[in-house]
Design a protein that fits this description.
Number of helices: 5
Strand content: 25-35%
Number of strands: 6
Oligomer: single chain
Order of helices and strands: HHHEEHEEEHE
Shape: flat
Number of domains: 1
Length: 167
Amino acid sequence: MPARALFVATLLAVATGAAWAQLQYPHTAPEAPPPGVPERPPPGITAPGSATPSEKSQLWGALAFTADGSWATAWSKPSKAEAESNVAVACAKFGRGECEIVSFDGQYCAALATYIGAHSRHRYKLSYSGGGLSVSQAQAAAMERCNNDTRARGRCQLRTTVCGDGR
């Protein structure tokens, strides 16, 4: 199959599978910070050598994942569409089922936590994403969501973390 046809097929599969994917792969899109975290960092506060908040908001990142925890990431992309298409193509190449995509601007990070195992005679493949303004916030959010699922019984594993600005 030509690369362009694969790309179009992947985008159609992602677009039409969104409702199913949200039920199958519970996640939190990192579009809003967790409670108690400021919406944006205070003006003028940046680490030496880092991008300013306005420069970061012009960058995009994305995380694509399957229920079994296979994942693809993109960061420092100039547009949301480019970040999403990069991870959609990479995730589809795994051939591990439907891919869920989470995208975010450069000020945010996203993490993925997964549980694969059995409980009450059922096998589960569960993946949860979480987001925040820092790597640690994103990791904590993903792990909390995953471990709060009674099927996982607190046995989730962190898979990856990505920030929109590449930090």
